[in-house]
Amino acid sequence: MSYYDVLGVSRDASTDDIKKAYRKLAMQHHPDRGGDPEVFKKVSEAYETLSDPQKRQELDQNPFSNFFQPSRRAPKQHQYTINVSLEDAFKGTRKTLRITRQPPCPPCGGHGIQTQELRMGPFVQSIQQPCGYCGGRGTRGAQEQIMVSLELPRGTPDGAQMSRDDITFTIHVEPHPVFTRRGPLLVWERKISFEESVNGTFITCPHFDGPMEIDTRQWGVLDPRKEYQYQDLLVIKFDVQYPSEGAWRCFFLPDINGQCRNNPECDP
Fold this sequence. Notes:
This protein is α+β, with helices and mostly antiparallel strands and 268 residues long. The chain has helices spanning 3-7, 15-29, 37-50, 53-61, 86-91, 194-199, 245-252, and strands spanning 78-84, 93-101, 113-120, 123-130, 144-152, 161-164, 167-173, 179-182, 185-193, 202-205, 212-215, 227-230, 234-241.
């Protein structure tokens, strides 16, 4: 399909005709209006060429450059899933993996297509066809094992994908018994007594970057419906353990001697 065909104009179309055709098609196929990005790309490419007098002249002089060439296929990708711990994903790590794959076809480099040049006088036309060595599959020969080193940066999210040559790795972050993650932060749920939630206390968080000593008094009376952020590393949810009915009476009703009115043996 020629650039003239893409815009729907004749070869002797004026500059104004080309501009009008482009505006109409650009409005119709613009991605922001729900159009096809690939069609919009071809329309823009055709207009860029035909609206430039020098490019248009060169195009008309070379009939073979007046056509879109088929795009070269990407090499076949091998897909692997890697399970990593939350700590490794949070802190970053290096993984060395033994991978079994079918090697890419040497003649076509794994693309499955070979390109030949056809010379016709002063003109050269490129022709693409399925690779005759691998039958267009992009792979050839018996399976092989290779070692791949993969660098996971700090904060690698679950579902992240990383590529090495013709291999795509999907990262699966395994659940952790203590922490969950929210973006760059760890989320920690900590049980705390009602008295500690009111009066404050010191708690130690077993954070991946090292133990953190936290004074809860900085937040005043703790509300179990809220979350509390510590520095830029941690979000804490407090699970306040409220006293039972009997314990409430012990907590609030000591006598003048400091003993529980309901149970003299209780030490409030």
